[in-house]
Specification:
Spore Coat Polysaccharide Biosynthesis Protein SpsA, Chain A; 10 helices; 8-stranded mixed sheet; 8 strands; 19% strand; alpha/beta; globular
Length: 297
C-alpha cells in the first residue's frame, strides 16, 4: 500500500495549529497510507512544542523535523529527504485542507497517470477586507480544469511522485530560498525534465488571509515582488528578442494601468486587477534596469 507523506514547511506561523487539525481530519485515499511531516524553518525550533502537543490527536503518524535554515528552499529539501516512500504532498502552513483533499489529488493522479497534480487554493478573507479587494479575490489560485496541464506550479497544494523527482535530481534552489520564486523555478525545471503536472479543480485547500495582507500597500508590494521574481526566473531565460518583447509589454501595461487608483469604483475585478498588473509590470521594468535589491528589502 503506497504511503503519502504530507509535508508542511513552517516558520513562526500562528495558524499552523489549524492547518494540522485539518490534516488530522483528512479522509484516506483508497489503498494509500498517510504520514504527516512538519518541517520547522525557525532556527529556534519554535514549532516543536505545538507539534508535540497536537501530534497525539492525529489518526496518522505525525512527526516534527527541524530544518532551522531560515531558508524555505532548504526546508522544502528537508521534506524531500524525510519523506518515507513514493508520494509527497505539500500544503502551506496558512492553509486548511478540505477533508477529501488527498482523495481528489490521488484520484486525479491515478486517472491521468501524471507525475504531479496541482489543486486549487481558495482564499478566506478577514472581516476588514475592502470591497474592491474582495471583488478582485487576489489570493485565490485556480489552475484550470481537472486534467489540464499546468506549466507554472507552486507548492501550496500539490502531490507529486517523489521517486520521479529524485530520478531527475530535482531540488529547490537554495539561492532563491530567501527572495522567493523557488517553487516556480522548481516546477519550471520539473516541466523541462519531461515530467507532467496537471490541475485538479476538486482538490481544495483554503488560505486564511491575515488582515495585514489586504491593504493596498501590501498588495502593491506583493505584485511588485512577483514582477521581480518572474522577470528573474522566466524573462531572464528568454532570448534577447523575447526579453525585449517582455519589457515592451511591461512598458505598455504600466502606461495602460497607471490610473489604477481611480478604478476602485468599477465593478468586478477591475480595480484589484488593475493595481496588480501595474505594480507587477513595474517590478519587471525595475528588474530590466538592474534595480533588483527590492527582493532583499
Amino acid at each position: 500500500m503506497d504511503l503519502i507523506s504530507v509535508c508542511v514547511c513552517t516558520f513562526r506561523r500562528p495558524h499552523l495549529s489549524e492547518t494540522l487539525l485539518s490534516l488530522f481530519q483528512l479522509r484516506r485515499p483508497e489503498n494509500r497510507e498517510i504520514e504527516i511531516i512538519i518541517a520547522d524553518d525557525d532556527p529556534g525550533g519554535s514549532a516543536r512544542e505545538l507539534v508535540t502537543a497536537l501530534a497525539g490527536a492525529s489518526p496518522y503518524p505525525a512527526r516534527y523535523v527541524h530544518s532551522g535554515a531560515r531558508n524555505i528552499s532548504a526546508c522544502r529539501n528537508k521534506c524531500l529527504h524525510e519523506a518515507s516512500e513514493k508520494w509527497l504532498a505539500f500544503i502551506d502552513d496558512d492553509e486548511i485542507a478540505a477533508p477529501d483533499w488527498l482523495i481528489e489529488l490521488a484520484g486525479a493522479q491515478t486517472r491521468f497517470g501524471t507525475e504531479a497534480v496541482k489543486g486549487h487554493v481558495l482564499a478566506r478573507y478577514p472581516t476588514n477586507t475592502p470591497n474592491w479587494v474582495l471583488r478582485g479575490d487576489p489570493y485565490t489560485y485556480r489552475y484550470g480544469a481537472t486534467g489540464e496541464p499546468v506549466r507554472l506550479g507552486a507548492t501550496g497544494n500539490v502531490l507529486f511522485d517523489l521517486r520521479a523527482v529524485q530520478a531527475k535530481n530535482l531540488f529547490f534552489d537554495i539561492k532563491l530560498g530567501r527572495t522567493g520564486g523557488e517553487d516556480l523555478e522548481f516546477f519550471q525545471r520539473f516541466h523541462q525534465s519531461g515530467l507532467c503536472l496537471v490541475a485538479c479543480e476538486t482538490a481544495l485547500v483554503y488560505e486564511c488571509v491575515p488582515s495585514i495582507r489586504v491593504s493596498a500597500e501590501y498588495l502593491m508590494r506583493r505584485s511588485r515582488r512577483f514582477g521581480h521574481i518572474d522577470a528573474r526566473i522566466l524573462v531572464a531565460k528568454r532570448s534577447r528578442v523575447g526579453r525585449a518583447w517582455s519589457v515592451t509589454k511591461s512598458l505598455g501595461s504600466v502606461f495602460v494601468f497607471c490610473p489604477h487608483p481611480l478604478m476602485r469604483w468599477l465593478p468586478g475585478r477591475y480595480a484589484c486587477d488593475g493595481m496588480g498588473r501595474f505594480w507587477y509590470h513595474f517590478g519587471v521594468l525595475e528588474w530590466a534596469v538592474g534595480r533588483d535589491s527590492f527582493l532583499h528589502e
